Amino acid sequence: MIFDYATLKVIWWATVGLVIIVFALTDGWDMGIGMLSPVVGKTDLERRMILRSIEPNWEGNQTWLIIAGGVIFAAWPLVYAAAFSGMYFALLLVLFALFLRPVGFKYRNKRPDEKWRRNWDRGLFVGAFVPSLVFGVAFGNLLQGVPFHFDDDLRSFYTGSFWALLNPFALVAGVLSVALLVMHGAAYLRLRIDGPVAYRAGRIGRAAAIVVIVLFALAGVWVATGIDGYRLTSVATGNAQSNPLGKTVVRAAGAWLDNYATYRWMVAAPVAGFAGAALAYLFFFKRHPLVTLCGTALAVTGVILTAGFSLFPFIMPSSSQPSNSLTAWDAVSSHRTLQIMFWVTVVMLPVITLYTSWAYAKMRGKIDVETVESEY
Predict the structure, then answer these.
(1) Cα(375)–Cα(53) distance, rounded to whole angstroms?
(2) Are 63 and 101 in contact (CB under 8 A)?
(3) pTM here?
């Protein structure tokens, strides 16, 4: 074995984070554009142009969500079991909303009827808005703790409800997620389309950037002063076999800020979140759409890393029984499983990256009226 168990646990924590970030960056602008399309597109032709900007690549981008689910199932089986059973209805809501995306892209232009196309535009909006909101709500609940516990046989029991997930802090996180992806989608749209559509996207993108900055700051203050974090007081060594029952955890005000005091470099994450949103705001109406997109990508990455760094090593804290919280040290698969997965990832990740890059390179360039009219 090249890596010891403790090192592999950290590697897979970082890998899951990387997959989530790539999904948010790529499918994030797809969802942002899905939400923007009915608002920014004033005519059917404009909406066709908007959807054409993401149509060739959206399925490949959504694959990163499938990869994230598969990686969590293989690397963190206890997290997969606890989260998917506890948040069952929320995840079903996401799943059914996502169903609207493939049929929306497939059937929207099958008929020239205006009402038909408008309804599919609304379906695509729902298929983008609901997952964006629920993913943010999920992160908001993770920072507060999820009401679950294990028995002696490691069977998971969830004691909360779907409506309890929709608490004030989680809703702030959900709206932050929506604004973040709307901003990201607007930046990508300005890169692909010129004219009135790009101008309207820029106006909404700037407004979304302000919302991102305000809500990200509000969430930070809330986490620092209004939410009890979780702190490990005893834990088995990193090389020990996984056992989520073999530790003690306490809740304490400001505990989610511990990592920033211990590892000063982690402060770069929230700084990146604010700086990216501010950069996007400043460049939305300048002639550098790629710089704007880089700014929104930096903001998306910074916000996600801030949540991850704050939680580490916790993955899924338990509010009902803190000692049953799942962490990067005790929620993982066996050493051999992580080792095999590591080598599979080393081989497959560059292949996926190269193919995705090639696909975007082939589809690059501006979308214009002539292109859309010639295809439909």
Answers:
(1) 13
(2) no
(3) 0.93
Question: 253 has which bridge partners?
Answer: 228
Question: CA–CA separation, 330 vs 20, rounded Å?
Answer: 21
Angle CA(8)–CA(12)–CA(14) in degrees, nearest 5?
A: 115
| Rounded Cα–Cα distance for residues 57 and 355 (Å) | 11
d(CA 138, CA 87): 9
Instruction: Give me the half-sphere count of Cα atoms (radius 13 Å) on the Cβ side of residue 209.
Output: 29
Q: Distance of CA 189 to CAs 2, 50, 269, 291, Å?
A: 44, 7, 26, 13
In the chain, where are the structural domains located? 5-375
Instruction: Tell me which residue has tokens 């073999």.
Output: 246
With the C-alpha atoms ordered 229, 75, 66, 148, is the resulting torsion angle positive or negative? negative
Tell me whether strands 156-158 and 228-234 are parallel, antiparallel or unpaired. unpaired
CA distance 48 to 50: 5
CA distance 246 to 267: 31
Separation between Cα atoms, residue 24 and residue 104, nearest integer Å: 21
- Residue 84 CA to residue 105 CA, distance in Å, equals 28
Whether the Cβ atoms of residue 101 and residue 127 lie closer than 8 Å to each other: yes
User: C-alpha angle with apex 290: 284 to 294, nearest 5 degrees?
Assistant: 85
Print pLDDT tens along the chain (376 aa): 578 888 999 999 999 999 999 999 999 999 999 999 999 988 888 888 888 888 888 888 888 999 999 999 999 999 998 988 888 899 999 999 999 998 988 888 888 888 998 999 999 999 999 999 999 999 999 999 999 988 888 888 888 888 989 999 999 999 999 999 999 999 999 998 888 888 999 999 999 999 999 999 999 999 999 899 999 888 765 566 677 888 889 999 889 999 999 999 999 999 999 999 999 999 998 878 899 999 999 999 999 999 999 999 999 999 989 999 999 998 899 899 999 999 999 998 889 889 888 888 877 777 777 677 666 5
- Beta bridge partner(s), residue 158: 148
